[in-house]
Specification:
alpha/beta, globular
Length: 498
């Protein structure tokens, strides 16, 4: 039972970061309420059920399960009692237009065979790259992944280790210094796209993802990512926490330099000792704190920063089962750098694309009706600040082009087999998630927008207002936002104890 005299906290948004923070606060005896605008928890990990198919909005790649297990372990509970995580092998199958496949996993012998298919001379280079990845993993994730950067001095303190690992270089540049095969360079650098980063410009620190996956594996939550969210909610409520769904926050009230209360669209209003936002960072400041000069100023400042791309996702259910199509595939297009330039720099809709194809029913048949399969095909697209097009017109056209490509490369009669389909475009991110410019990953992960240069876990002016999630340190992805929750919880518990 929570002490009626306990300090009270409100968390805006029930995404992975918000729920992880809520669990940590509630576990420590802070009476915590999570307020979510949508009808279901999850944020970007929303889901739909249509015609017997379950479609996860994402994210669908679960890495570093230990960071999730810790949320249960801090109160002596076992995550496995609430959700089953299933290993995915291979982690990804990468496929190029010339028909070459590359199965990426942490099975060393198998991986070396895959590398040898591309270029036997790159095996030694890959080993050296792994050593590099282990080094940046230790510095960038183990040491700094859940540590708040509240002042420039903290950045200076971290700088020597970052410089030692040439953090100013891009992931692609560093990978290219170790291996010669262009296909292997693409295979070892595409991961930054999963957190919104351009492999050609994202800091080489993000090469840590390889060590993260090698040590922790890649996992799938039985029933979908949505069931992992449901397990977090169940655990939070078990501890005495409260979740309010379907009631968007309209304002964070302030008194002087302190957040005082939260108001929702329904008229619900309550006072709190601390408020944290797991919402979009621009929306949190510009809209929810619009009644405070700090909110207006910070909102304008944030809008000048570089935001990561949006996504166009085609969800579809088909007749038949496809045991030859693994859980995760990357269907590379004919271009790599040129395609990235179109998305990140030129802001055009390219004629070609690379597709992340998600096929959960091959691991977990419960995601589709018997004898059928669930898929989604995802392509990065420029955000709405760069790409000004009418998605109501372009969306159906792009959906057909993507399905045509999946059909050409994997499922020849795909259009005849489709039972249900729908797409999710940049305006949907903007409308459903208040995502600035429809960005799918918040601030672009560049060195100049990392650590101290991202949103701070605790606001500099409103001293009991906090951030959690993709817009703050360390960034997007499940381990990133769960790490941000650990950093933010540490600050909040310290402040609330004072």
């Amino acid at each position: 039972m929570i002490d009626p005299q306990a300090k009270r906290a409100c968390i805006i948004g029930a995404g992975f970061g918000g729920l992880a923070l809520a669990i940590r606060l509630q576990s420590a005896g802070i009476a915590t309420t999570v307020v979510e605008a949508r009808d279901k928890p999850g944020g970007r990990a929303y889901y739909w059920q249509r015609d017997g198919f379950t479609f996860d909005a994402g994210p669908t790649v679960v890495t570093d399960p230990a960071c999730l297990q810790e949320l249960w372990a801090i109160t002596g509970h076992d995550m496995a009692r609430d959700i089953e995580l299933m290993p995915v092998m291979p982690f990804y199958r990468l496929n190029w237009p010339d028909g070459v496949n590359f199965d990426y996993s942490n099975d060393d012998a198998q991986l070396k065979r895959e590398i040898a298919k591309l270029d036997p001379g790159d095996i030694d280079g890959y080993e050296r790259f792994l050593e590099y990845s282990a080094g940046v993993f230790q510095e960038g994730y183990v040491k700094l992944g859940s540590v708040p950067f509240l002042d420039f001095a903290s950045m200076i303190k971290a700088a020597p280790a970052l410089m030692k690992h040439q953090a100013w270089r891009s992931v692609y540049s560093v990978v290219s210094s170790y291996v010669k095969s262009e296909k292997l360079r693409e295979a070892l650098s595409f991961h930054t796209l999963l957190v919104g980063g351009n492999p050609m410009t994202t800091s080489s620190i993000y090469a840590l993802i390889h060590k993260l996956e090698k040590d922790g594996g890649v996992w799938w939550a039985r029933g979908g990512t949505n069931r992992l969210i449901a397990a977090m909610v169940r655990h939070f409520e078990r501890l005495g926490g409260v979740v309010r769904l379907g009631d968007p926050v309209t304002a964070i009230g302030t008194m002087g330099d302190r957040a005082s209360d939260v108001t929702c669209a329904s008229g619900w209003n309550e006072s709190f000792d601390a408020v944290a936002s797991n919402g979009d960072i621009v929306h949190s400041y510009r809209d929810l704190l619009s009644g405070n000069q700090r909110g207006q100023r910070e909102g304008r400042k944030l809008m000048k920063k570089r935001f990561s791309p949006s996504l166009f996702v085609v969800h579809f259910g088909v007749e038949g089962t496809w045991p030859g199509i693994p859980h995760h595939m990357i269907l590379f297009g004919p271009r790599y750098k040129g395609l990235l330039d179109d998305i990140y720099t030129h802001g055009v809709l390219p004629e070609d694309f690379s597709i992340y194809l998600h096929h959960p029913s091959v691991s977990d048949p419960s995601m589709a009706p018997p004898g059928m399969s669930t898929f989604y095909a995802l392509v990065p697209v420029a955000h709405m600040g760069k790409l000004a097009i009418d998605w109501s017109v372009v969306g159906p056209q792009l959906e057909k082009r993507i399905l045509d490509e999946v059909g050409r490369r994997l499922i020849p009669d795909i259009h005849n087999r489709i039972v249900t389909k729908f797409h999710y475009a940049p305006p949907d991110f903007a409308t459903d998630l208040n995502a600035h410019l429809g960005s799918a990953f918040s601030l672009e992960p560049m060195l100049t927008q990392s650590a101290f240069f991202r949103g701070h876990n605790r606001d500099d002016v409103i001293r009991n207002f906090y951030l959690v999630g993709a817009g703050t340190h360390p960034g997007a992805g499940i381990p990133g936002v769960v790490g941000s929750a650990k950093a933010t919880a540490g600050l909040m518990l310290e402040d609330l104890a004072g």
